[in-house]
Amino acid sequence: MFCNTVSVALLLFSVSSNAQLTWKEAYAKAESAISQLSVADKVNLLTGQGGASRCIGNTSPVASINFPGFCLEDSPLGVRLASNVSAFPPAINAAATFNRTLIRQRGEAMGAEFRGKGVHVALGPMMNLMRAPAAGRNWEGFGADPYLSGEGAFETIIGMQSQGVQATAKHYINNEQEHFRTTSTSNVDDRTQHEVYAIPFIRSVQAEVAAIMCSYNQINGTYACEKDETLNGILKGELGHQGYVMSDWGATHSTSPAANAGLDMAMPGPSNFGSALITAVQNGSVSQSRLDNMAIRTLAAWYKLGQDSGYPPVNFDSRNNSAPDDLGVDVQGNHKVVIREIGKASTVLLKNSKNILPFKNLQSIGIIGNGAGPAARGPNGFPNRQGNDGVLAMGWGSGTANYPYLITPVEAITARAAQDGTTVTSSLSDSDLNAAAAAASGKDVALVFITADSGEGNSPVEGNAGDRNDLFAWHNGDALVQRVAQSNKNTIVVVNTVGPIVVEAWIDHPNVTALVWSGLPGQEAGNSVTDVLFGAYNPSGRLPYTIGKSITDYPAQVIYTSPTPILTIPYSEGLFIDYRHFDAAGIAPRFEFGFGLSYTSFQYSGLSIRGSPRGGQAPSGPGSALDPWLHDPVVTVRFNIRNTGRVAGHEIPQLYVSLPASTNSPPRVLKGFDSIFVAPGRTQGVTIQLSRLDFAMWDVIQQRWQVPSGRIGISIGASSRDIRLTGSV
Predict the structure, then answer these.
(1) CB neighbours (10 Å) of residue 524?
(2) Is 449 helix (H, G, I), strand (E, B) or coil?
(3) Rounded to whole angstroms, how far apart are CA atoms 226 and 261?
(4) No. of H helices and E strands in the chain?
(5) Annotated catalytic residue: which of 41, 248, 292, 453?
(6) Tens digit of pLDDT for each residue in 348-405?
(7) Does the annotation count 478 as an active-site position?
C-alpha cells in the first residue's frame, strides 16, 4: 500500500507565545526606542562584533532598551556549528517536492530549532538561481526557475518566522557562481533583473522577511552592498522591503557610500561601520535621519517577531560545542518525520523500464558504490562537509549543519530486505570494478550509487573550487555504472547530487532499467530512498532544473579564469536560463525541467479559464512591486486530474504562460503548480489562480510592470514539455 501523506499532527513545532506585530506596529516601537539612544548605541545595533562571540555573527547589546544583541547563525538547512540539531534536506530537494505544504513545514521545523538554540537571525533561505549548472552553491537554492524559487522562499520564510525567528533572504543579487565571487561584476540588463533575479526577493518581501543579505559581487560595476539602484531603488523602493539589509561576511567595502545606498548592518564587523560610521554621522556624510532609519529597520524586525519578550538566550557556542557555555540543548524534536517525508517526496524517478520499481518478490539485491555506505570518518568527519565520502546528503561550506546521525542506503535497504527474506550483497568501493561486478552478478537487481558534490569556493574539494569542474559523476561513476550494467540485466542507478549530471554514457544501456534521482535528502537519506524503492512511497518528485545531454547545451557556464582583476560575468542569456533556453533553441534535453515518473498514471481533462489580466493602471514608484493591481487574482484556471492507474499517488500539475512572440519572451514560463493526491480511479479538481504579475513583463522605458497586448497562452502539463491542456486569455 502506498502512503503519500504526512500527518500534520505529528509535526508539532513550538510556536512563539508572543503575538507577532505588523510592520507599522513594530516601527512605532522601534522609533520610540531609538529616540532614547545615542549615536554610538545606534551604531552598535548595526555593527557586528567580529569573530569573538558565540554565534557566526553577533551585534552588541544595548542595555537601556533591554536589547541583548543579535545572534546570527547559518545555515539554510539547519543550525550550523551546533550539536543536537537536525540536518534537513537542502532547498534543492525541498523544491523538487513541488509541495508548498512540505516546504512550509520544513521552514517551521528549522525555525523551531534556531529559536531553541537562541538564534535571533537565521541566515537563510538562499535563492540564487541555477543559472550555470556547475555553480557550487546551486544546491542551497530552489533550482533554476524564478517562480519556483520564489514560492520556495515564501513558504520557507513564513514557516521560519512563525517560530519567532528572523529569516534572511540571500544573496541579493546576481551571485550565481563561486569563482571570483568577491572580484567579479555580474552585468545584468534591467528587464532580466526584474523578471528573473528579483522575483524570489519579491516573494520574500511579500512574506515580510526580516532581513535581506547583500552579496559579494559587483552588479554592473558597483558592489552589491553599496549599489543604490538595487538596494534603495529596487529592494526598498519598488519592493517596499521594511526590514533591514545586512552585508555578507566581509562584503562591506565602504562606510558612507554603503550606508547611503541602503546597507543597514555590516557583518561580521566592525570594519567600515563601528567607529567609522560614528565619524561619518558626525561629519555629515551620513545623515542622522539615515542612521535612525538603519536602526529603526533593525530594531523593528526584533520587535515584529516578538523577540523582545521571552526569547531563549543563546545556549550554544559555534566555535566550540564542548565549551562550558554550550549547553548542548537538544532541539530536534520529531523533525526527522518531516525530513524523511521531504526526502522521499523529493526523490525523482527518471527511468523505470519494465516497471522494475517498486521492488517485488526479490530474492537477492546487489548494492554497489561508495555513495551507498558510511563515510570512513563518520558523517561529520569533514569540517563543514568538505569531502565526498559515503552517502552524499548535503554539499559543503557555510550552508551546512552537523548530522545528528546519517542513515545510509546500505543499512536501510538491508534492514528492509530482511523483512522479505531477501539477501543483500554489497561492494562499497567506487574504484574496484571487479568487486562491483561480483556484487552485481547473479542478483535480481543491482543498485549503483553515484554522486557529484559542490559547495563554497573558499574550500576546494578534490580539485573543485566550490563550483564543479564539469557535470560528470565523481569517483569514476560512469565507469562503475557501465561495469555493473555488463553484469546485471536489472541495473538501477541512484544519484545523489548537488545538481544536474550528464548521464549519456549509460542512460540508454538496455540493462540500466531504472534511474532514481535522490538529490541531497538530509539525515534520513537511506530511509527516504528505501521507502521509494520498496513501494512504501509512490515517487512524486519533479526536477527543479533541466538535465541536458552535454554541459554545452546550457546557456550559461561558470567562468573559471579572469584576464582582469575584476571578472566580467555577462548575463547575456537574459531571460533564457535553463529550460527557457532549451525550449527557445530547440535543444532536446535528456530530462526536462519539471519531469518525474510515478508508479501510477494520470489523465488531464476539463480545462476552464475565466477572467482577464487586462484593465486598470499599472503601478510605478515606491512599493509598486507589491501593489494589489499586480498580485490580486484576475484569472482562474480549473481542470481535472484522474488517476488511471492502480495505486494512489501525488501528481504535480504545472501551469506555464506564453507571452506573445512580440515580447521576445521564452516560449513558456512556469507560473503555477500544485501537489495533488489522487486515489486510484478517482478524479480530483484543481484550481490555480493567476495574478497580473504572472502575465506581466517589465517595461524598461516606463519602469513599471505591463501586461502585453495580444493573446497569452496557458499550458497545463506534467512537465515543461509534457503539455496536456492548452488555452489562452
Answers:
(1) 29
(2) strand
(3) 5
(4) 18, 27
(5) 248
(6) 999 999 999 999 999 999 999 999 999 999 999 999 999 999 999 999 999 999 999 9
(7) no
